[in-house]
Amino acid sequence: EPEVTQTPSHQVTQMGQEVILRCVPISNHLYFYWYRQILGQKVEFLVSFYNNEISEKSEIFDDQFSVERPDGSNFTLKIRSTKLEDSAMYFCASLRGVAEQFFGPGTRLTVL
Amino acid sequence: AQRVTQPEKLLSVFKGAPVELKCNYSYSGSPELFWYVQYSRQRLQLLLRHISRESIKGFTADLNKGETSFHLKKPFAQEEDSAMYYCALSGSSNTGKLIFGQGTTLQVKP
After folding, report:
1. A99 pLDDT exceeds 70?
2. Is A78:A64 a contact under the CB 8 Å cutoff?
3. CB-based contact, A25 to chain B, within 8 Å
4. What DSSP character marks residue B36?
5. What does the pLDDT look like over B65-101, one tens digit per residue?
6. Alpha-carbon separation of residue B81 from B18, B104, B109 (angstroms)
């Protein structure tokens, strides 16, 4: 059964550094999402992506964040200059149409 | 504002006991409600959606628009049901984004 994959599983970085989190959605899916979960808090929506552009973003998704689907398979989330408060679990999800979102296993980002 | 509330952080029951995980939502239109489950060391996966009105692994959930609730129920809990359960809402935007509750940890004791 196809699955959403995410790499790396754990990323440690210094404050102010750029990080790129990678996701490979399920191949025939059309909608792509990033969510994050700060330890002990709820899963929060960051951004949705459809037809090669952002379709919706939350207040959290400020100018430090960007997303790309560079090659038709990968879906990346870039944080330009990480802050301590960016430490969280980041989940990628994909959706074909009117159905369930399939989630990846997550990337744990630790900013020191 | 769209919001999902799960009032219990932890629910602990004995095997064979009934389970009810509470979920209330705030939304002015016709929401689509989901229950997602995360077993230990596994990814989030869909358990139920209100539109399909089905029973999965013995769990059911009924959307009550009057009480704005979507509680998850199972008559007889099993140890393998121990997991984190998230109620989620997909609302007004047509992007499919999900708004999650805080989650409830269900612990089923032998």
Report:
1. no
2. no
3. no
4. E
5. 899 999 999 999 999 999 999 999 997 667 889 999 9
6. 12, 12, 10
